[in-house]
Design goal:
By secondary structure, the chain is an alpha+beta fold. It is built from five helices and 20 strands. The protein has three domains: 76 residues, no CATH class; 78 residues, no CATH class; 122 residues, Glucose Permease (Domain IIA), CATH 2.70.70. Strands 10, 11, 13, 14, 15, 17, 19 and 20 form an eight-stranded antiparallel β-sheet that branches. Strands 3, 5, 6 and 7 form a four-stranded antiparallel β-sheet that branches.
Amino acid sequence: MIAIALAIIIGIILIKFKPAYAVTLGNEEVGYIENKEDFQNEVNESILQSSETNVAFVKLDDIKYSLSLVTRDQIDETAVYSEIESNATNVYRVYEIADLNNEEDKIYVNTMEEAESIVASLKEKYSEIEPDLAINTIYLDNADEVNEESIKLAKEKVEDDLQEKVTEKSRTINGVYLAVTPVIGKITSRYGAVESIRDHTHQGMDIAAPAGTPIKATANGTIKYAGVMSGYGNLVIINHGNGIETYYGHCSKIYTSVGKSVNAGDIIAAVGSTGNSTGNHLHFEIRLNGKQVNPQKYVYK
């Protein structure tokens, strides 16, 4: 009788209850399944193996299984699978092109081939400054930031900065960057010109501009001279260091004084026609260790 009663009880239990596996994702129990091997295989093949482009791996908290006895209606593999799938995050592999001399300049592309092609193109185009570009592998949670438009904009930014370096190099003499053009106007006499108004070749450049036009310091420096000097008329000389000096002649007015520090772009004088001059213009010279050099190589190109 006891055996029969026990068998009946076990039968009732087996009808209502069933052995199953409790599934825990991270620290949270998400439901029950019947077969953990089959279920884990499905997770591995369908969730952890993404078919999306550039997915390096799928990020998912650890899945743990523990054997339990539950009612049959508690077993819902579809719901458990859906919960795990919703917690999975794709991590994308992209390639970063970085200018090692400017941490803000970066381009992200989807393939190593794209990265190598862009680097080769930039190095060839800006070979005179030998750009220091590197390719790094980067992992992102959001691939939307790598698209055709973002690549185009980033490449334009890098090119703008590289072009600025090219310009800076072309306007640098003996380590001094001639950042500012002193006046904008028509060049009426170039360096080395032979003209009847002088008994030697022209040792600077003449730039015609209306009387009173502001004259700007072409680079940072210290005022070495500010006054009248023979044929120059009213003259300002700026010492920029490294043996570089700039001369600004024929000024109508001088707005600075000896010993004053100036920055590139500061107004130091005004265009005029003082001294040995045939009209309103700026006579501009660059000297390296006391010897005139051609300003057109650096400022007026």
